[in-house]
Design brief:
Elements: no helix or strand
């Protein structure tokens, strides 16, 4: 049926079979379309504002360029749709199947998208600010260039996504599976990322300052050139990461596994790194001034050319390390195992070994 260009506003169309229709350019504002079969329709360019579309089958539709703001779309099957360039702001999209859709360039601000299956979608360039996305499956999506600031993304599966160049500031991302994602160039400042699986991600060049990253698995990640200052990274597995050239100033890194990492050229000043496993790391040329490194296993590390002045290194295992050319002045090295170390050319003035 060809219904294009019609004014259908304020109608009760609930429970109808509208499949395969051309509804393009229609005014469908304020309608009750609940429980309908709208699969395979051309709905492009329509005004669908303020409608009740709950429980509908909208599979395989062309919904491009529509105004769908303020709608109740809960419990719908919207899989395989072209929703590109739509205004979907302020909608209730809870519990929907949106898998395999093209949602690029949409305004999705202030929506409730909790409990949805959004797997394999193109969501690039969208405004998703202030949304409730809790408990969603967003795996394998292209989310690049989006504004996701202030969202509740708690407990989501975001694995294998392209999240490059996004604004994710001030989000609750706790308990998520973010493994294998490209998160490079993002602003992730002020987020709660605690208890996440971030294994094998590319996080290069991100602003992660002021975040709670405690209890995360960040192993095997590329974190090069990031601003991680003022973060709580306690109890994390950061083994095998490339953290080269990062600003890690003023962080709580207590009780972490940082073994086998490349941390060269970092600013780690003023951090609490106590009780960590830092074995076999490349820490060359770092500023580690004023840190609490007590009770750590730093064996077999390359720490050459570092500024370690004023640190508390008490009770550490530093055996077999290359500490050549370091500034160790004013450090507390009491009870350390320094056997087999290369300390040549170090500034050891006033280092505190006293009992």
């Amino acid at each position: 049926m060809d219904v294009r260009g019609c004014n259908i506003s304020g109608c009760n169309i609930s429970g109808c079979n509208i499949s395969g229709c051309n509804i393009s350019g229609c005014n469908i504002r304020g309608c009750n379309i609940s429980g309908c079969n709208i699969s395979g329709c051309n709905i492009s360019g329509c005004n669908i504002r303020g409608c009740n579309i709950s429980g509908c089958n909208i599979r395989g539709c062309n919904i491009r360029g529509c105004n769908i703001s303020g709608c109740n779309i809960s419990g719908c099957n919207i899989s395989g749709c072209n929703i590109r360039g739509c205004n979907i702001s302020g909608c209730n999209i809870r519990g929907c199947n949106i898998s395999g859709c093209n949602i690029s360039g949409c305004n999705i601000r202030g929506c409730n998208i909790s409990g949805c299956n959004i797997r394999g979608c193109n969501i690039s360039g969208c405004n998703i600010r202030g949304c409730n996305i809790r408990g969603c499956n967003i795996s394998g999506c292209n989310i690049s260039g989006c504004n996701i600031s202030g969202c509740n993304i708690r407990g989501c599966n975001i694995s294998g996504c392209n999240i490059r160049g996004c604004n994710i500031r001030g989000c609750n991302i706790s308990g998520c599976n973010i493994s294998g994602c490209n998160i490079s160039g993002c602003n992730i400042s002020g987020c709660n990322i605690s208890g996440c699986n971030i294994r094998g991600c590319n996080i290069r060049g991100c602003n992660i300052s002021g975040c709670n990253i405690s209890g995360c698995n960040i192993s095997g990640c590329n974190i090069r050139g990031c601003n991680i200052s003022g973060c709580n990274i306690s109890g994390c597995n950061i083994s095998g990461c490339n953290i080269r050239g990062c600003n890690i100033r003023g962080c709580n890194i207590r009780g972490c596994n940082i073994s086998g990492c490349n941390i060269s050229g970092c600013n780690i000043s003023g951090c609490n790194i106590s009780g960590c496993n830092i074995r076999g790391c490349n820490i060359r040329g770092c500023n580690i001034r004023g840190c609490n490194i007590s009770g750590c296993n730093i064996s077999g590390c390359n720490i050459s050319g570092c500024n370690i002045s004023g640190c508390n290194i008490r009770g550490c295992n530093i055996s077999g390390c290359n500490i050549r050319g370091c500034n160790i002045s004013g450090c507390n090295i009491r009870g350390c195992n320094i056997s087999g170390c290369n300390i040549r050319g170090c500034n050891k003035a006033n280092d505190r070994k006293q009992k």
